[in-house]
């Protein structure tokens, strides 16, 4: 098998749900203390995990924006009653995002990984133009403007959802929290806890009685949430709307050429029997070997792989021209059978793959 390719390499994004990270270790050694592990990861990053300050800032923008929007919703729900309105009346300033910045361990690895994936997709969507070596409009690209009203509506819904991710603003500006239900639920209860802690500190005599008010506000927020409003869900709906047309040979290449990265991920997921979110995670946070296997399993040519790597540059800052040439040469060594085997293993439950990889590294 090609060097550095591992079918059991762990993912670092949403597909790590329910899997807490483990420090890298050598055979026969136990995990190092967490503070030291963080320092080691910073100074000696793994391949594909180099520090990317732009991605860090963008991740904070998504996380802070969603938290701020949820805090606003919770405050409005509390204000529905006089008792609830009085709890935070003296605290008009934002409370949740500063609390999370001070206590980041309140965030689960899966939630933070999802925010990194969102941020990475946003950075890629901000690209303009098309790859220089891509031909002009193909039959597949013309399909996007075929005059199908239902298809046009699905495209418009995806574009609108993507635009929400691209709106200008810092980490303190509210962003529509179009999150999967599990991540949204975590953020709602985390934000509710941050607000309740401040309210209980300000009103110690009512500390126990007020908890039910925050619970009611949280449930009201959860009851109004629509996880289908996000661009990932919109991309999935678009592919479903395309039906058999989604299998057109040129369509996935056209999606990449048009910088429709979530549509590309949804189309790839359909062909590889993977979720759109997992494909997006591989593109943003997976190893280059995993990206190569994904491309080969999709039938991508050497030129297709080079175009894909160029498109991923905003989230993979080490992909210089020289490295892309080297990766393209290694790509030629990957057979379809090897790629299919790796992708097949990536379909296994994330918790199984992450823990198996950890045990493989620690066993002599």
Give the integer mean of the pLDDT values: 82
Oligomer description: single chain
Unreliable stretches (pLDDT < 50, length at least 5) are 1-30, 129-137
Count the beta strands: 0
Order of helices and strands: HHHHHHHHHHHHHHHHHH
Shape: globular
Tell me the fraction of residues in β-strands, as a range: under 5%
Give the helix/strand class.
Answer: mainly alpha
> What share of the residues lie within helices?
55-70%
Rg over CA atoms? 22 Å
Largest sheet: none
The rounded distance between the terminal residues' Cα atoms is 22 Å
Q: If helices are DSSP runs of H or I spanning 4 or more residues, what is the number of helices?
A: 18
Task: State the gist of this model.
The protein is mainly α and about 375 residues long. It contains 18 helices and no strands. Mean pLDDT is about 80; it is low at about 1-30 and about 130-135.
Describe this structure in words.
With 364 residues, the protein is mainly α. Helices cover 61% and strands 0% of the residues. It is built from 18 helices and no strands. α8 runs antiparallel to α9, α10 crosses α12 and α15 runs antiparallel to α16. It starts with 33 loop residues before the first helix and ends with a helix. The N terminus is likely disordered.
Topology diagram in text:
Blueprint: H1 34-43, H2 53-78, H3 82-87, H4 96-102, H5 109-125, H6 139-143, H7 149-166, H8 181-202, H9 211-224, H10 231-242, H11 251-257, H12 261-272, H13 276-285, H14 288-297, H15 302-311, H16 321-331, H17 336-346, H18 350-362
Helix pairs in contact: 2-5, 2-8, 2-9, 4-8, 5-13, 7-10, 8-9, 10-12, 11-12, 12-13, 14-17, 15-16
